[in-house]
User: Fold these one by one.
Assistant:
Number 1:
Amino acid sequence: MDPVMILIIGYVVIGGLLASLGAHLLPVGGAPAAMGTATGIATGTVQIMLGAVLTGLFTAATVATFTNNILLVALSGAIGATIMLDVVMFMANILYAFGCGVLPISGRVDVDPITKEPQAEYKTPQTDGHGVPNVVFVSGTIGGFVGGFGGALMYFALLNYAHFTAGTAAVASFSIFVANAILAAYNIRGTIEGFHDPKFKRLPKSMIASFAISLLAGIVVVLAALGLGVI
Amino acid sequence: MTVTPAVEEEEGEAEAPKKGLSFKFPYDETEMALIAGIPAAIITIFTGLPAVIKGVGLLLALLWGMDSVRKTSKYGLGTGVPSIGVLGTGYGVIGALMGLAVVEYGAMPALGIYPAVLVGALFMAVLGLVSGYFSNNEKYIAMKIPRLERAMMELGMAGTLAMLLQFSIVTGTLAFQSVVDMVMETGVIAFMFIFTAMAMFHPYNACLGPDERRERTRMVSIEISGLLCIILGFAMLVLGTSPWGAWDGLSLIVFGAIVWFVFFRKFIKACMDECWETVGTGLIKTLG
């Protein structure tokens, strides 16, 4: 077996696992957040992750046109995804605070694990928190970074090791990323706040599924590259 | 508002489906999968066919995907119906790439027959089965949805067939290089991705509720396929790839427009007939 094949499969698997981890770190609010009765961004895991990884792929693809350094490409993807998510979380906070008049409050913990600010007293009864409080913002930033890094890593592997064209590599890595993010979304089931959420403990189960799917997807990509005779 | 006695309501329910019988497939999900999947697979192999026939194949493949989405989402996914449609499309793109990579084996380029592309659909069936197993198994994600394995397998296959049919419509062949040049690098893939996902998830997402009816939901899928055919027809005209000349693209646009108009009208009519009461706002003239 050619070492290049192992490299491709390895990077696809790492990218898939990072996609799964990133999806678990995001502040997903879903429909309740749209009504201001849950913490996070008011849409599903899939949509948030799609937006983040697409932005990440744009920045990664731009950087990949003038460098062959894998770390640089992956980090640029991570930065793109992080900026996108941070802007969305910040704007969500502005809208919640000045539009709805609710405080950014975590619904899952009584005290913010990072800043030690009290949360429970400010929470509206019968709701699950509001907006994007500090700990959730930090968690979302890490999630965007990790997810974007994974997506860009896959893109780099498909572009430079499997020798796909830029467009094909982007579409293929995007598709593999999406499959992994959706499996993670099924594991989350609805809403999650970040690493301090009790649901975060379910992460290993999703990781195992993600590993199997990414491994198979990596094998499919390698077979496709073999069929084309480019590696 | 008057309260109707329960008996009358039941009678009304029993009669209700008869009003919308204008479009009905009397097939259950398994029969539908066979009826849609086999012709779609056969049309995928023959790339020399006119675009309209490929459009019919695309319509069948998307209908099959929508049926799979519907039967899975009935149980509640917990993360919204769109997720599983996007999953199917994502698998479809990977499977289509896989199929295109092995396209040369057993191909007859003179006749435009490429049977090896179906390898991609088989690989995606395996991938879908594995992901369904992991999603449903108690030890892993534990979604506990009956027959999720089969639904994910069908979604992967339907997505792959739909993607391959669209590639075949736009490029007129299934050679990898031409697909890369005309679909991936021109950005037509973005339209394909989102419309395929839309045709699969949007019908059930829009129609779900206590009175959801399979025939009515399927009309939306066919209508979106019509819109997709119009876009693909324009792409064909601009790229000028068809061996049949400009008429191929034009006929696909006309086909798409007719399909869209007929089924959109049917869907609105079915909704009007089956709903309790329609209160017009006067903003848009409805078909009444």
Number 2:
Amino acid sequence: MKNTRTNAIPASWRGMLDDPRRAAAHRSYVDEWEKKINSFVQIDPRPGNGEGALAGVPYGVKDNIAVKGLGLSCGSKILEGFISPYTATAVERLEATGARVYGKCNLDEFGMGSSCENSVHGASSNPWDPARVPGGSSGGSAAAVAAGLVPFALGSDTGGSVRQPASFCGVYGLKPTYGAVSRYGLVAYASSLESIGILAGDVDTCRQVFDSIKGEDPKDQTSVPWEDRSGESSSRRIAVLEDLSDLSPGVDAVYRKSLEGFREIGWEIVPVRLKTLDYVVPAYYTIATAEASANLARYTGIRYGYRAEGEDHADMVRNTRSEGFGHEVKLRILLGTYVLRSGFQDQYYGRAQRIRTLIGDEFSKVFQGAEMLLMPTFPVAAFPHGESGMDAFQQKLADKFTAAANLAGIPGLSIPAGMDGNVPVGMQLLAPAFCEERLFSAAREFLSVYEPARCPGFKEPS
Amino acid sequence: MSKYQSFIGLEIHIHLLTASKVFCDCASRFGDEPNTNVCPVCMGYPGVLPALNEEAMFMSYLVGKALNCTPAESAIFDRKNYFYPDMTKNYQISQFHSPVGTGGWFDIDVEGQVKRVRIHDIHLEEDAGKMIHSASGSLLDYNRAGTALLEIVTEPDLTTGEDAEAFLQQFRSLVRYLGVCDGNMEEGSLRCDGNISVNLTGKGLGTKTEIKNVNSSKFLRLALNHEIRRQKKLLERGEKVVQETRLWDEASARTESMRSKESAHDYRYFPEPDLPPFRPDEAFLSRVDGAMTELPLARRTRFVEELGLKAVQAELLTEEKSTADYFEAVVALGSEPQNAAAWITGDVQKYLKRREEEIASSSLSPERLATLIRLVDENRINRNGAREVLEAVLEEDRDPESIVAERGLEQEDNSEELAALVDKIAAENPQAVEQLKNGDMKPIGFFVGQIMRASGGKADPQAVQALIRDRFGL
């Protein structure tokens, strides 16, 4: 098979939205797919400036990232009718390259979920097999890219929300170093963990988009000036996890094969143990829900979004929040309120923060002996919709491979690495902070041992 | 020793005089059309992030220094969670674990005694908006939301309403000296809550009540003293003080219960993940040092000890920094300190008050006042002439010298002319002369008045008097 994924954005995307004929032809392609996968919640191409490296290239934006004049639903009823009055920094930076927002992509409500079924706009589906989920919470962004509706899309990754759907849909998914990309305009779920991430059909597009959006932003004081710390790759040692249980047979097979693949292209395999891995999920959910309980307090129906009726102000707010938030969101707000309550902070939140430090330390140790770490992105491949799939609790437990990177603030790139039946399986590469270049270059190398396919029905634009 | 002891601690909020709000670029200005100084950040819109205003941090560290606090090497912001309609995010960005300053003190003068009040901490936070209740419903104005608010928390070292009143007045003077707050209590740029408990002497703190939102230092004194009496009475009767928040009711001159502890909040503080810790570097700290100024109490003491002013005058002169600066400028130009102080706290203050002007912005520059004082000292004009000149300087914005010349106010010291006048008036008033010769001194005033009139006010009254005494051998 011809290697179609090594080049950055195919020329056919360039200027596409500036050419009415091509734009219209593409629109019918999109509409056909949307009946099956429901990846967009709003399609409304924004005007472009017609200049720059990505002039006229359409892209999708997860609907928890602000674009002035477009909705910002976060997949929630509580933001019904809300139109964003401003634009996120990452989107502004892409606008400066000439790229144009094509529309807003579906997601799990406020970024909480692993299936993209938990949205007021209905579930999205996996383009490889619409009976299955596309993964979450950036499922809409991943599905849209996998189906070829857009060459890339922005997502957000709090505990794996870019990498897991990338794995399920067979595309590349980057969660950058914390602080490398401005969060200004990303609707907060868990501020200290989340980043705006990128879903792309090929690794060089991913890299190019990352180049465009990274860097310090005065509007986000947790952002930092970009400084590449990848260095010269001299050691070529890649760490792998020694004892992996809990993997589905399909994912396990792909993991072993990827490991062999890296050995084949000249990497030395260093087996390591991550003793803290078992603590990732409890620490992650404690911190994430604590922050979420504060971040979601602003949705009251008073100034924007959905408003319920009520006897008085307090009653109105209560009804608005009861009717406006979905179950998963309510669960996490309650959990977060519980772990922060007076007298119990040290027992829960404080302890989670200490675990977080230990996880970071353990990663640092691993990276002293290896350039990168290879792990599965998710223990299973894309599961079926509904009750035959994974339940919400199983989904949370399965976040341990991805959420570790969020706790440590390090970059992770999920790359297509094999198939489990008719659906793809991704593996993630992790590197020290500000070493994204290592991830891109390893992903490029890996193409010589695994050439990912496109989903059935995929067409490049003409 | 009295049977009961009272403990008062204050929580003071001041609006910092920053140009923009604490976490966004919106103007920090009140009184504008409602909801005009707002943006997605201070409105808490989805996806926005706070960006710390360094000017607010600077002013906070400056207050910390003035209050002898230990400055935080790493000032951390926390989220304080509570629901309120005029708070846009429903959490307030404040400081809890590592505030700007801790463990300081502030010396106040209470009736001539210096009293040291310990400062627990000072912390920076954002203010909420304002609710306006009308017949058709409640309206919200968010112009104030996100403005920089510095909270100063004292230890319970004050004992009476008078202490608290003095503290508040002198603290107000301090923040105005530092230029960080206009100190206007009526407009809410300085707000104060008082915590108070009464207990048997030696038993330590009792159950406290909190008095909220008192809008003048006088009401603070009245409310606290009322509360001390109320709590003593309860204890006398063997009843318990309930921990609660109370409001001062001006009309009935009493405190009234507002809410009890049962409805107290669990603020669920945790570190604000959107703001990295603020670590002042050396340049920042030396800028703070450079902005430090001599504080009111120190200046007052110096004016008394070094310049020989009376305590009352020193107090009047040092209450506002601009007045004290003005006074020192006049002294630097050669005026004798007590003389300059008398002028400024006397005639100058009187004329300015009448004209509703501030000394610093009036046309009476320190140079002009120094000139005026010199003209009097050199006997070139008399006191009445000086008052006329003072008024004219304020009115016409011109130099005293030219006003004196134009109006011919220069005193005559031509004694021959004056002697001729004395002769003339003596000739016209033989009875008065007779009285004087018989030892009745009353007509002296009459003579001086007549001569002053005849000279068109230019005569030096003292010289005239001397001349009369000389003429009639008195």
Number 3:
Amino acid sequence: MTLVTTSLTTTTMREAFLHATADAIDTDDRTVLVLADISAGADPVPDLARRRPGRVVNVGIREQLMIGVAGGLALTGLRPVVHSYAPFLVERPYESLKLDLGHQDVGAVLVSIGASYDQPGIGRTHEAPEDVAVVDTLPGWTVHVPGHPDEADRLVREAIAGDGPVYVRLSSEVNAAPHHGTGLQTVREGSPDDVVVAVGPTLDRVLAAARFRDATVLYTSTVRPFDAAGLRAVVGEVPTVTMVEPYLEGTSARVLDEALSDRPHRLVMIGYPREESHRYGDHELPL
Amino acid sequence: MTTVRPPTDPAELHRLMSLMTGDEKHSAAATSTLDVLHVLYDRVLHVDPQHPDDPVRDRFLLSKGHGPMAYYAVLAVHGFLDEAELATWAQPGSRLGLHPDRVLVPGVEIGSGSLGHGLPLAVGTAVGLRIRGLTTPRVVVLVGDAELDEGSNHEAVAYAGRSGLANLTAVVVDNDSATHRGDLAELFLAEGWRAITVDGRDHDVLETALTAAHDDRPLAVVAVVEPKG
């Protein structure tokens, strides 16, 4: 994977998220940032914690508790924003997501960093290309995969303003420009029988790939719920739909297949392969 | 907010529990919690079945969701459930399952059954009430001694103790069912809680312990009952 080669902004998604959350804490009484040490020292968190006592809850390196605390906060009517690396946010405390949030019928905004292989030298312990597939097993979740810090800023603010369970997957890999809007957006018109759906930070590479030169290119920063109606409105009668996701290959095969159940279709799912990685260094999407 | 009512007759609770059959595997769990639940709802908690979502109510979280027959019986006595509904216990379509569900039953604060979730949720609830400036409500969570083996509880005990969550009380019903058990009160004391060990069948002693001053710390009450056997 190539890291941060195309961004025109000096703001990272992580910085955008933390500042958006700080703004929310400053302007409404519901928002609480819940941490397990990760980002506790990152700007503007220390100042925020001093300025708004109690509204930054750092439970220490206790990720099960982090989700349980978020559930308890939500039970009192607050809006927890919970943050860590993806494996520690959604994999280690998976049952807590299921029971402390979902089963209690309360929501939270979970915001991860480290997307798939964002840090090539860090190794398997901090890599979670499975994260979206894991969250996708749980009902009712919205999953955002922003492709630009400006999108991250907007999606975090919108998520905090809501009530339901939301997973926002941040990345250090970004597109050159933001693409706002909801659902699938047509970025480049081409054949309706050769349609590519680019998710989040994969867009610029999809646009540059020779194999997709004649294809219609759609973009989305929201993969759950998936914009099935938007896809059906664009594709032809017998389409080939390729979905390029910056996480585990095949994660969205189910929702694509459901969206196109009314017509013959061929799916090509591109993402990171299912492997037990023991390799440090870049992991390239097989475009 | 508190309705003045005569003390609950223990025989009435046993009669109501007898209406619920079909989970004999967890009958020991139900009877182990009975006296603690009786005292909490009769003498300690400020809850109102007419206003089960009152923001200033005390919160009781049954973390040890196994065998909730005693819990349902107490809720029925206190007006959260109709007695007639107890006969539907564990039947398909009933609101009263083998593990309680907060979405289905008024007055049930959390859905529970999987061990190790109630105490972290209670910590979050206590923190949330503090953030919201609600200084009156207490958060009381009931766990089993074996349940304390769960790592999530150790995370919660350590954080709550070091954060001075004085609005939090953990009641440990100790029926000697833990594997590799240590000193239960010491577990809490070591993390900065106040901890009291009492006879879990003595109502007056339980009331005294459950209303004890916290001294700006969370309170653990270890309620010892007969061994599970």
Number 4:
Amino acid sequence: MKKDIYIFNGGRLVRKDNTLLFESVEGKKYIPVNNIESIYIFGEVDINKSLLEFLCTNEIVLHFYNYYEYYVGSFYPRECLNSGFVTLRQSEFYIDYVKRLFIAKQFINGSAKNIIQVLRYYNSRNADLSQEIEEILQTLELLNSQETIEQLMAIEGNIREKYYKCFNKIISDKAFTYTSRSKRPPKDKINSLISFGNSILYTIVLSQIYQTNLDPRIGYLHSTNNRRFSLNLDLAEIFKPIIVDRSIFSVINKKIITSKDFNKDLGGIILKDEGRMKFVKELNDKLETTIKHPSLENKVSYKRLIRLEAYKLQKHITEGEVYEPFIARW
Amino acid sequence: MEVNGTLIWYYNICKREVWLMSRNIVPDQHNENIDLGKFLHENSFSRKKKEISFGSVKFDVILDTKEKLVIGETKKSSRYEEASKWQMIFYLKTLRDAGIYAEGVMLYPEEKRRDEVLLDSSSLKMLNEMVNEINLIMEKEEPPKAQKCKYCKNCGYFEYCYA
């Protein structure tokens, strides 16, 4: 499995002969190009066209973040896997509202069921969450009868709000109290971690979609016309609880990240560089963790699961194989 | 899409693969078997002429002998012997249709092995049947369902098919 590279320092990323070189005040570091899937840039990094061309031939996606942890954009090289047939089918499933609604429901279904799995785990440990689990299950029952995407979004929002409130029972450290969801900028530390984690997950999913015939611009839950990429946001919904949120609980409960890792800035709370590094490391460990896959009879990493999810969706639209979202079993 | 040597090859391995290929749904490019295949292709027989295009077919090598023309196809192992043989027969037929009489040889550099392939009337008949069936598969709206066989495990479509 190819690796992802994260650059937090400032410096220069260049093509050097047939590989990559990162030059910074700390010195030169060669990065073997064959083994990279994506590069994530957080620091102030200079790049040039010859580098972009090189990344393009090697099919490496480049993701940029600014100082305030916001996603800036991606260098998404010319599509390496093109199938006009798949693109047309993907559009057809968007335009046909019934087909679109079905896929959108499956995303929320997957997301909510994974949320419940996370809650059940903590319910069996130190937090009493049975009431919340029951409420979320009840809300989820309404899903099937909804007829518009907007109604689905409302249900999703409702579930998420209930779920985020549970964070206060899961996390014992009072410095990480959650009040309400706030973005751009996040108003507390928990929100800061959620936003940062989610934005990384979006780009990780984007890189996986790049390796399939799917077009990331056509999403089903998140509408296609008001942003550049949307399918990655859709697929990310399923994985947020089991990848991002579990990493959040882990870094806080193990005291890997503490209040010292945050800065108050621009009326919001953001992670310092070192905090970001620690959180990204945790996320990456999670992504590389393998589980036994029920139908592949192989061990697959969480990152690979994202790719498999994209394959399943692709088969849903091209082969009529009904898409069932991945649900964690514990 | 016109039937070509690659499709003949896939047909003899997996019918589903024929359909996927015809829609340009290609296997996982980072699958280690595919990587190895590419590497071998690029690095074997570097001193001979290679990749000779003739119409819709491409030969890996042409081996010149005094009395006859022999075309060669490199494969990384004889695991796909049957499929490779039919691909070669397809090449020989394409050449014959153009009035060129040639013989074929399968090259397995890793096994230091070579197999000769000839075009005769019975193989020609079977080849024509294959071409018809391939056309039928490609016309279908949906691909044949995945069926586990001995080739699945190392296939670049494995995860795609069984996810």
